Predict the structure of Short-chain dehydrogenase.
Amino acid sequence: MTANGDLDWLPGGMTEKKVWFITGAGRCLGTDIAREALAAGRRVVATGRRPVETDQRRGTWLDP
């Protein structure tokens, strides 16, 4: 374990990769959280009730 509590290895030599799971990413706060997490270099899984709206917002999170 590292000083910040992360596992530095898992069985089989796999390293732990943290992923943010964000619900409500098709609207306001969820979109803002997803954008900031990605900007900080985090991995993100984002969901929303309205797939089309969530997919449209996704384009605003990523650089082309």
